[in-house]
């Protein structure tokens, strides 16, 4: 310690370095702290903006996938208990993973025909044990009279769990005890149903499932092509507010959630008790100029919006 005190040039250099680091971090610290403080009055913080979090919604609202940029931690946040669950180390989870439920993730495969160059199957990843289960892609089964063979709908009709992702134009159907019967777990593309190029994403699949009288769960939380029902199906969230399911009565306008006119790119998922939704604003920058570039990212906290529902 004596030598350090006597080495005045070294002390000076250390002081300068610490001062520079402090000055560089002050704007970021101030901005993220302000985001935590100045937020809609009807919200509560789930993850602070200062952790640089990114939220990915999970159907059902019992958990939330969180990645903290500050610590590079990745975990499932249990919204009932606050517990942070670890995840299996699967290389496709972040890049190709789409949640079906708290325990199951669809690992999106290739759109090309099996056997083609670079082909990758579709899988279901079981988060409880880290195992993958391959899905049979009905899109590539033999045709009948140059059309999709209707007998293959049996795979979907006999399934216990059916999921529809509008943006991806896909239906996933899992059998009872799907882990023991993986050969009957399937994925089906809207392209197999024909239709015009202007047909909206997921609409033909919706129509088919309704004609077959099959209950399904919406797993596309983007609000781009479909509304998202609440966990108990009492309400539905759309791009322009929250409505009662069935009567289509607006009960929570967009403005109540902290947005002006759109929930898209803001809504992440329902909260499991239906009395809230999870939201996160898109990252912005304090300086965003063609000449100066982008500087000082304004991180957003992950919030729960408490809704005035019955």
Describe this structure in words.
This protein has 310 residues and is α+β, with helices and mostly antiparallel strands. The protein has helices at residues 2-6, 8-37, 93-96, 154-157, 203-211; strands at residues 43-47, 53-56, 63-68, 73-78, 84-85, 97-99, 104-107, 123-126, 132-134, 136-137, 161-165, 170-174, 186-189, 217-218, 228-229, 235-238, 241-244, 250-253, 267-270, 276-279, 284-289, 293-298, 302-306. The protein is globular.
Quick structural summary:
The protein has helices spanning 2-6, 8-37, 93-96, 154-157, 203-211; strands at 43-47, 53-56, 63-68, 73-78, 84-85, 97-99, 104-107, 123-126, 132-134, 136-137, 161-165, 170-174, 186-189, 217-218, 228-229, 235-238, 241-244, 250-253, 267-270, 276-279, 284-289, 293-298, 302-306. It has 310 residues and is of the alpha+beta class.
């Amino acid at each position: 310690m004596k030598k350090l005190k006597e080495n005045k040039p070294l002390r000076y250099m250390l002081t300068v370095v610490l001062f520079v680091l402090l000055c560089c971090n002050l704007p970021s610290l101030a901005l993220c702290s302000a985001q935590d403080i100045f937020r809609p009055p009807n919200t509560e913080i789930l993850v602070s903006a200062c952790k640089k979090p990114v939220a990915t919604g999970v159907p059902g609202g019992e958990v939330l996938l969180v990645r903290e940029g500050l610590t590079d931690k990745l975990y499932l946040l249990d919204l009932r208990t606050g517990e942070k669950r670890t995840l299996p180390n699967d290389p496709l989870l972040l890049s190709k993973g789409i949640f079906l439920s708290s325990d199951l993730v669809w690992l999106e495969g290739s759109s090309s025909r099996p056997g083609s160059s670079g082909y990758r199957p579709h899988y279901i990843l079981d988060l409880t044990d880290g195992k993958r289960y391959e899905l049979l892609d009905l899109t590539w089964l033999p045709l009948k009279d140059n059309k999709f063979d209707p007998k293959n709908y049996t795979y979907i009709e006999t399934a216990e769990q059916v999921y529809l992702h509008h943006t991806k134009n896909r239906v996933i159907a899992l059998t009872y005890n799907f882990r023991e019967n993986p050969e009957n777990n399937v994925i089906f593309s809207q392209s197999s149903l024909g239709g015009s190029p202007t047909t909206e994403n997921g609409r033909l699949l919706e129509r088919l499932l309704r004609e077959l009288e099959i209950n399904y769960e919406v797993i596309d939380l983007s609000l781009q092509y479909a509304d998202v029902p609440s966990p108990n199906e009492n309400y539905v969230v759309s791009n322009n507010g929250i409505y009662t399911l069935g009567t289509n009565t607006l009960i929570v306008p967009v403005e109540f959630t902290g947005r002006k006119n759109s929930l898209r790119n803001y809504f992440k998922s329902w909260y499991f008790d239906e009395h809230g939704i999870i939201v996160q604003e898109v990252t912005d920058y304090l300086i965003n100029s063609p000449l100066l570039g982008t500087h000082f990212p304004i991180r957003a906290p992950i919030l729960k919006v408490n809704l005035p529902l019955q």
